[in-house]
Amino acid sequence: MRSGYVLAPLLVGLSFSGTFSGAVAAENTSAQDSSGVKKQSRKETVVKKTVPAVRTEQAVADEPEQVIVTGTRDPSQTAARSISPITIIGGNQLRATGMTDIREALVQLSPSISREVNGSDQGSVIDALSLRGLNADQTLVLVNGKRRHTTAAIAVDASSQQGTTPVDLDMIPISAVDHIEILQDGAAAQYGSDAIAGVINVILKSNNHGIHLQAVNGGYAAGDGFTTGENLNAGFKLGNRGFLNLSAEFKHQDRTQRTGIDPRTGKNNDLATGQPQVTRESIETNFGYHLTDAIELYGFGTFTHRDAERWAFLRAPSTTAADGLLGMYPNGFEPVETMPENDYGFTLGFRGKRLYGFDWDLSSTIGGDHDTLGDYNSANADAYKETGYSPSRFYLGSYSNQQWTNNLDIRRGVDLPFLYSPLNIAFGGEYRRDTYSIGSGEPLSYYLSGAQGYQGETPQDAVNAARHVAAAYVDFSTQIVKRWRVDLAGRFEHYDDVGNARTGKISTRYDINRFIGFRGTASTGFRAPTLAEQNFAAFISSPNYATGQIAANSPAARALGSPGLRPETSTNFSVGMILNPLPRLHINVDGYTIYIKHRIVDGGYASGARAVEAYAAAGVDTSGFSGDESAVSTNYFTNGASTRTTGLDITAHYSSDFGRYGKVDWDAAVNFNHTNVRNIARTGEGAPVLNAQQISLMSTENPSNKLIFGGTWRQGKWTVAVHEIRYGHTTSNLTFVSGSNAFSTTDFYHQINRPRFVTNLEVGYQVLPQLHLALGGNNVGNAHPSRVPSFTADYNNNLYDTLSQQLSEEGGFYYLRADLSL
């Protein structure tokens, strides 16, 4: 551990969970119906309430209800009466996990959310998550209801997230979160591309008073990976007409090492496997100001700078000698990949009421991500052989993207005599401009074999791509009779690069009585190929193999049989049941089926001579690779298959009151999930574009089920929270790195990962009215994923199956958390 960080500034903001103002829209409008015709006499009055720590959609029947803004454009919709399955997770509960970023907290709290064990290269830095076992790009992320931009760094290496450029949740300060609404239902007809698996809407704090500080310091059972996170949140009044909320955050995590004994050195000195070293600084602001009683100016934004370092595989002295680099590194070396990154997102808008009876919201959002790639402690072996000189530090290039989104959303309630409640009519439009670019590195970073660790982007790889997207939608919702609610939505989108998309959704809910209700949804959706998927190219070499990506629309990819990319399309069906058998017991059961056609995957594999020829057509020279030609492989993105995902979500919540012995809030949630891969596409030569490994990445790497159960006991100044997480089994197809099948793209080792159990425990005490301290541990038993055989781990650089999406390979994490409220 770094002593300079130990128990850095104490004192944590007992996270404010103030009353949500209801002014934020679900990417559209949340203004209350001002038509004057709302039939309050025939509906229960909605009272907004403080967001609870973790709640499923069913609230206690006789208590005020939480208004939601995700998955609906009805401003009176509550979580308890949601027409679609939705989970609310409070900001307090996120921060109480001891995690310093949103993704890691969500993994501890939601059984529908999973993440890969550990990525490689820049993919290991990005906080990508999966919802319902689908790809990270198939979940839409909103902030205050507005579409969030994605990362520019693509996941390069083979993994469950290969090829994704998802929203990086680590770029949103966890201290700024009031609550998160997770819509577990297809919603492309409401929000557009990417909302196939569901929607995660991050609602920012809007309190106008108070200062809250938090500090979390901890490390892993192995004695490494020291992590410190400090944050501050403050609220201010803007006169009597508005608010300003500010957050600032600092995070540092040391690298971890999860490798075995390297047979070349006899030591455990390879640092390639484990979490990267990351230092991040973030700021956030959220404000609203009523210019008049009917018009509000609002805005919010984040800016984050992150420095990340990722160790590449060790070049032992024997490997260094084979590369002719003993003159530079007589004792071997291990390159370190660096990625300084700047990420920003800003929204400014106006919303108002009673304009000819309509509520309206006009906004503009701009966001982007810029990554600078580099490495040090490296060398270009070919340059050194030819000239006797090679730099040890390289500029490898850059990745950038930007998304500019403009929305106009209009809503009105219309009173019709034959309907129980007003017909809520919403419509609007969106214009978006996406850009993506790759900048080439310095010449020696890509000359012949290029920089060791991660080869620089070549001038042939450099690209500046852009597209324009226009969309229009309409949404109708109402209660036909007292207990029957219906919602219809339709959307049309035009992409100037991949064409048109038309999507629709119908949802309904019928409550038989206060104890039981039913709901169901049928919808269509789509996901347009990202500009990164269409244009990304790279080449990576290691001591034992060379691999990389060629652009899907390039001549090199077409020579291998690539037809180019088109959008994914989906059909979603879900049916659910809401049960309230006891006053404080609430159960929700939701089953779903998701059909996806033309899934974009990293397929089209080629190896050996065909891969070398493809690289040559793309302008990449592989002659500097010192290994055998059979260890050279390549691939491209393609619409490789169709899938069917079926599953079941069950959630339950119960509150117990033991009088002077305290109160306990019990909760349990489980997700069952299975994906079948079908209709695998073929290359021009008739070969399947997906191999067994690619199929397993989509179908069996995600746990077949995930169960979270436990409770939180409160008595006086004490709080104790205990939760057990069970990850169901997974199976992987691992690459052989030795023997007759070494680096085969057709034969793999079938790894079975048995279920794993993880226990999370936290004990807290209210030291002062303003100060709360907590000592906790995630995975207190220090459980790990399944071990893998040495013939699938290059020089024992992997101890565990890192393709699986069960628990993290890092082991137990123990922390001290302090919260201060002023």
UniProtKB/TrEMBL annotation:
Protein's membrane topology: Multi-pass membrane protein
Signal peptide: 1-25
Biased composition (Polar residues): 266-275
Presence of keyword Transport: yes
Top-level taxon of the source organism: Bacteria
Places the protein is found: Cell outer membrane
Keyword Nucleus: no
Sorted UniProt keywords: Cell outer membrane, Membrane, Receptor, Signal, TonB box, Transmembrane, Transmembrane beta strand, Transport
Sequence ranges assigned to domain TonB-dependent receptor-like beta-barrel in this UniProt record: 299-780
Domain TonB-dependent receptor plug span(s) in chain numbering: 82-199
Region (Disordered): 254-275
InterPro entries per record: Beta-barrel_TonB, Beta-barrel_TonB_sf, Plug_dom, Plug_dom_sf, TonB-dep_rcpt-like
Family: Belongs to the TonB-dependent receptor family.
Name the UniProt record assigns to this protein: TonB-dependent receptor
